[in-house]
Specification:
This protein has 180 residues and is an alpha+beta fold. Helices cover 23% and strands 42% of the residues.
């Protein structure tokens, strides 16, 4: 009888101890949700960049003097597909040699340097593109959610900055004109 009582007390104490160790799942705070979303965005952007399958759809273009112009992201973009790149500048108001009011340069990527900054959750990308109309250097600064700026320089004086969003090829809604 005594053994049964000791066993019963032991079982009850074990059940109480187990009941106290189970914790309820706490809902995430806003700060934790933002941090988790930032990390997920960073990983998704990193995947696009490492696979070299993305498009920078520009909402603004900026010249070397700092003049910014709102542009259509469907015809102003930088597209990267494996080892090829397309740089296109277009206008809704004119007709150009590419059929969309500007210039389309399609070529081969000859240099690719991607540097992630894990602390700030940003990326720096440098690439050179050799096209039929010249050699271009592109320096990208990309945020974790895909917001990006790309500084385009060539063999001639001056530069142009594409300011927009990096998206996957599948999500992209760009129209590529005729390459020169």
């Amino acid at each position: 009888m005594r053994v049964v009582m000791v066993s019963l007390v032991w079982v009850l104490m074990s059940l109480v101890a187990v009941a106290q160790t189970t914790t309820e799942v706490q809902p995430m705070t806003k700060k934790e949700k933002r941090k988790a979303q930032l990390e997920a965005d960073f990983k998704a952007t990193q995947h696009l960049l490492e696979n070299k399958q993305f498009v920078l759809e520009a909402d603004f273009l900026q010249d070397r003097y700092g003049n910014r112009a709102f542009v259509s992201s469907t015809i102003n973009f930088v597209a990267v597909d494996s080892m090829e790149a397309v740089i296109q500048i277009g206008s809704n108001y004119r007709i150009g040699p590419n059929g969309v009011g500007g210039v389309t340069a399609k070529g081969r990527i000859t240099k690719w340097e991607l540097e992630p900054d894990y602390k700030r959750k940003t990326f720096a990308l440098e690439m050179n593109v050799m096209t039929g109309i010249g050699i271009y250097d592109l320096r990208f600064t990309i945020g974790p959610s895909g917001n990006a700026k790309a500084l385009l320089t060539g063999l001639r004086a001056g530069n142009l900055t594409f300011d927009g969003t990096v998206v996957s090829m599948e999500e992209s809604r760009v129209f590529e004109g005729h390459s020169i």
